[in-house]
Design brief:
The chain has a five-stranded mixed beta sheet, with helices on both faces. Strands 1-2 form a two-stranded antiparallel ribbon. It is built from 28 helices and seven strands. It is globular and about 85 Å long. It is an alpha+beta fold.
Amino acid sequence: MRKVLLAIMTSTLLSTVAAAAAPADPLLAPWSGPYGGVPPFDKVRTAALGLALESAMKTHLTELDAIARDSAAPNFENTIAALERSGRALDRAATIYGIYSATMSDATVQKVERDIEPKLAAHRDRIAQNAKLFARIAKVYEARDKSGLNDEQRRLVWLTYTNFVRSGAQLDAAAKKKLADINQQLAGLYTRFNQNLLADEGERYTLLETEADLAGLPESVRAGAAAGAEGRGFKGKWLIANTRSSVEPFLTYSTRRDLREKIWRTFVDRGDNGDAHDNNAIIAEILQLRSRRAKLLGFPTHAHWRLQDSMARTPERATELMEAVWKPAVARVHEEVTDMQAIADKEGAGIRIEPWDYRHYAEKVRVAKYALDNNELKPYLQLEKLREGMFYVAGELFGLRFEALPQGTVPVYHPDVRVWKVTDTAGKLVGLWYFDPYARVGKQSGAWMNAYRNQERFDGEITTIVSNNANFVKGKPGEPLLISWDDATTLFHEFGHALHGLSSNVTYPTVSGTNVPRDYVEFPSQLLEHWLSTPEVLDRYAVHYQTGKPIPRDLVAKVERAKTFNQGFATVEYLASALVDMKLHLAARDDARLDPDAFERDTLAALGMPREIVMRHRTPQFGHIFSSDGYSAGYYSYLWADTLTADAWEAFTSAKGPWDRDVARRLKDNVFSIGNTRDPADAYRSFRTRDPEIGALMRKRGFSDR
C-alpha cells in the first residue's frame, strides 16, 4: 500500500503545539506573498531549523499559560478557540522542518532531527500535562451540550478534551513524569529507525555493468537506471536503487534470475543486515516502551490505545476484517503460483517459484491469460498527461480548476517542484497544489500527500496549501516519463488525499481537511483510484507518447478483464504486514522484549503465509509503524478504508455511473468537504444512506465466490 504523509500535526493536541514567535525569523513569521502567503523556501537555512523550533516552543508555553491563567470563566471562545489561534509560528516552522526531513534529508537535516525530536516530544507532553489548561478544557467539555455551540464546535470540544485525556492529562504527577520519559525515548528511537532506513535505501544499490545485465528490461527501465547511475557518478553504467520504484520494475521484467534474487534480497533486508543500520534492537525497544505507555494510560496494549478513537474502535474488530479476507486471499495465491509454475515448467526453467520470481512470472501469466503485457500500456501512460487527467476528474467531480504558476512565481525547495493555483467554478481561490514527483538522494521512498496549511475561516478565510510527492525515476531529459499502471494508480490515490484537503470547507483548522481518523483517511484516496480506468480519462489522457493516439479500446478491455488479476498477491502482501503490525502490538509487553525477526517469522508461519511472498513492509523497514506512532497498530486502515471505497464506488455504478453529479455532490458534501466535523461513521451513512458492506470489497478483489 502507499504511504501517505499527512501534515505533521494532525490531532487536536498536535495541531495546537505551536507558538507566536519573533517575526524576524523567516521560519516563524507569517507567510507573505501571493495566495494568502506561501512557504518561504527561498529563505530556509536548514541548520537554523532547530533554533527556530526551540524559539517557538518557548514562546508557546507562555502563550498557553496565558490561556490557562485567564481569570474569566472558561468557555469555547477563551479556551478552545484560543487554542486554535495559538501555535501558528511553530506550526509554520514545523511544516518547513517536516518537508525538509521527508524530501531533502542531508546530514544537516538529520542532525537537526536527532536533536529536536525529543524536544518536540517534551513540548507536547508539557501541553498535555498543563493541569490548569486541561481543567479549563474539561469545564468547556462538561458544558458543551448546553452552551449554544454548533455541531462543529461541539465536535472540536470533544476532540480537544479526548486528545488531552489520551495524552495523559488525567494522570497523577508520578505517572505524567513516566509518560514524558517514555515519549522522550520514543522520539529518539523513531528518528534513529527512520535514518537507518533512509541510509539503507540511499547507500545500498546494485550497479549493472554490462548490457547482459539488462536482459529483458524495457527501454524506459533502462533509461531510468542509466540516469540513476549518472546521477551518482557512474556514467555509462546502470543503477538499480534500493527503493520500491526502482526495484519492482526490475523484478518484473529482468530475465536475469541471479540479479533478480540479488536485488530482491538487498531490498527486503533493509534495516536487517546486522550492521550499524540494523533496526531490530530499536524495534524491540519501541514495542516495549509503547506497551509501558499504554499501561500508564489505562489500556491493555498499544493497539487498544491507538484504536480507541478510530472507526474500528477495537483491535478485535480490525482483526476480524483482516482474517475474513486473509483465507480467500491465500487460496487465490496458491492458484496464482500454480499458473506461474506451469509457465516456468513449460519454458524448461527447472526452477521452483521463489519470491524474486513472483512478479516476473505473474507478468507472463498476465500475458498468457489476458493477452495483456504491461509494456503495451506504458507508452500510453505519460506522467504529465495523467496529471492533466487528474485535474479533469477534480473538475468534473468537485468543480476545481488548476492553473500552473510560472516558475519563480512562488519559491520552492527544489527545482523539481512545480506549483498550481486551484480555483472553484466561480474563480475563487481554493488553494495551491505543489507537485514533487521525482526520486532523489535524501528523499524518503514511496508516495504521500502533505498539507502545508489547512483551510479555516474562524478568524477570516484562509485557503489551504497541499502537496503530492512521489519517487518516479527520471528518464532522459526532454522525453516524456512513462509510468506503469500501478504507478498511475498510486498517482491518482495520492491526488485523492490532495482533493480531500482542497475540498475542505470548515471553520476550525484542527478538524480541517485530512485530519480524520487513520482508518478513514485512506477512503477518499482509494476511491479516486477508480476514475483512472474510466473511458473519459483514458480516451483523453492515456495517449501514445509518440503518435498522440488514445489507448486502443481492445487494450482497455484487456485491463478491465484483468482487474482482479494477481489480487491474491496484492492482498496477501499487504495483509501480512497489517496482521504482523497488529499482532506485534497485541503481544508486546512492558516487562520483556520481543525478537522482531523471530516474531515476524513465527507469526507468518502460524498464519500460513505462502512461501513465495514476503510482507510488503518487513518489520525492520516498516516505516509506517516505527518511524512514528503514525500507522502503528493501524496498518489495517487501508483494508478498512477499502471496505468503504468498494461500497462507495458501487454507489456510483448502481446509479448513473462514475460521473453521476448527484452522487458526486453527496460525496463532496458528506466526505470530502467536512474534515473531522462529524463522526466518520455518521458521515458515511449520510452519503450512502446505510452502513458499508463487506460484499463490495470481496467483489472488488475477486473473492466473492470464496
